[in-house]
Amino acid sequence: MEKILEPILNSPRLKDYVAELQEFLSSEEERRNFFYNKITDQEKAEFINGEIVLHSPVVMIHNITLKYLLFAIDKYASHHNLGFVGYEKLMIRLTRNDYEPDLCFFNQGRADSFLPNQKLFPAPDFIAEVLSESTEKNDRGIKMEDYAAHSVKEYWLIEPKRKYVEQYFLKHGSFFLHKMYSEGDVIQSEVINGLQLPVEAIFNEMANNQYLKQFFK
What we know:
Blueprint: H1 2-9, H2 14-38, E1 45-48, E2 51-54, H3 60-79, E3 83-87, E4 91-93, E5 98-99, E6 103-107, H4 108-111, E7 120-121, E8 126-130, H5 136-140, H6 142-149, E9 154-159, E10 164-171, E11 174-182, E12 186-188, E13 196-198, H7 200-203, H8 205-212
Parallel strand pairs: 4-7, 8-9
Antiparallel strand pairs: 1-2, 3-6, 4-5, 6-8, 9-10, 10-11, 12-13
C-alpha cells in the first residue's frame, strides 16, 4: 500500500488530492443515504463504489442451490447453538459498500447483540456466494477484496452448474484458495465449528435430506 501511495504522498499537490478525495467521498455518502431511503424489502440491491446495483431474479438452479445450502448450514448452526445464519436479503454494511450476500454466518457472541428490527449488519465471520453470470465478476473481484479487508474469515464460491465449491481462508488480509471441492468430497469449515458438509448436500435434494436427518433423531 505504501508503494502505491508514495507518488501521491510525495507530490506538492497532496492537499489538493486530499480535498478532491474528501469531496468525492462526501458525494458518495449522500448517494449512499439516498440508497438506504430508496431501497425497499421488495428489491435485492447493493451499493458498490457509489452506485446502486439492482439484481435481476435468479435462475432456478441458483435458487435451489442456495436453498439446500441454507437448509444444511442453518440447521447445523442452530442445532449446535453456534450463531446466526443470514441469507439473500440481509444487508451487510462495510466501510464504503453495502452487500446482500447469498448466505452469511455470525458467531453467537456477535449475534447476541443484534436487534429484532435491525436492518444493517457488520461484516460476518463467514460468507458464501452462489455464482451466476451476472454476479461472478463482483463475487471474485470487489466483494472478495472488501470481505477480506473487513476480516471475513472464510469465503465459499459455489458453482451450481458444474457443481463445485471453492473454499477460501483469510491470511494476511487476503483470501487464499484452500481447496476446490466436487461431488464426493466433504467440506470442513474452519469458522462454523465442526461443520463437515458433503458437497452433494448442496446440489442434490436426496443428499440434502440425508444430511438433515441427523438433526431429527
